Amino acid sequence: MTVLSDEEVERGRMAAVRRYDVLDSPPDGAFDRITALAARLFEVPISIVSVVDTDRIWFKSHHGVDVDEIPREPGLCASAILQNEPWVLTNAALDPRSVANPLVAAEHGFRFYAGVPLSTHDGFNLGTLCVIDHAPRPVTDEEMASLRDLAAVIMDQLELRLSARRAISLEEQLRHTAESVATTLQASLLPPKMPEVPGLALVARYHAADRAEVGGDFYDAVFDDERCVVVVGDSCGKGTGAAAFAGSARWCLRTVALEKRAPSVTLQRLNAVLAGAAQDQPDKYCTVALAEIRRLANNQAEVKVALGGHPHPLIVRNSGLVEPIGVTGPIVGWRADVEFVDAEATLESGEALVLFTDGLLDILVAPGADATAALQALLASPGGLPAAHIADRLDAQLPVGDFDDDVAFLVVGIQ
Asked: How large is the average pLDDT for residues 99-105?
């Protein structure tokens, strides 16, 4: 059996003091009730819950004295923690262990002291629960048993609080890990940056409802020499399953978009792929708004939009009018035998197309209200708004902290 030196014991003891993180903590009613009860049981004026630091004795609770701490020497508690049994002085003025102690030798010094060490489960003494009197007095076995029980209650409280702090710390670590994983997974659903498209300004934003949970919202943009295809989608549910399905939808759209078909046909191809892959899984579906933008020679742009169960995108006109575009089609991935419809519009220079997920409507529009009217009031601006300004206006409406649903939106400005 290894015997520790005094220095090793003290280092271990101070590590335990730091582990329980009790030094200089605020007053606590639970400990104050214990010291009041101990003083009443012993019929003494003073009772203290002490913690012995490297150079001081700090009082977690003190009944009958007005100080919060004293130097470690000549504190009686510093002697009491050197053994594992109660330390009792029935007449300190005559006891050789304490007769020279300044707290005893003073004119109104202590005469009676009984302290029980506050011992941790691994055998270190943090401090004491002690009772003190200015007059000598005997002590009974029953009284000391009560003092030991009260000291055990104090340690139970300290252990409970230590366990609570550890649980909170573990929860914070797990949440941090979850947030990191969610951020990484969410990033896989989004392009690292918007492509640079001549004559167009593309601005996209994504806001997670909960940073620790990956959502199913996604957006993307694909550009070739003839056209730019943009998409905003929302997969059913949350978590890794929704993210995986959204990722499949995004990459499938990228592949199908290379075929240069109309948005309605592209959605039909996507729907066939997803519906075939998600057979017997009724919760595997998504909503999609898909738009094709082609620049015209006169600073205009032709826009075609197809919707799969998704909120209507909005056209922000230079006149200040904000109008929806699109024909609502079936949800994507639910059934294989469905069709989608293209809607067309011409946009002038300075106008914009705004695609978004329904999380934005949940935040901006009260239940039962007209979504188009609410967004028209927010985005209407005679003379038009640059794409970045539209995105900033939408961002400014989002609440601080977590909210109910993820929000994604993509703005295409015609330059």
From this structure: 88
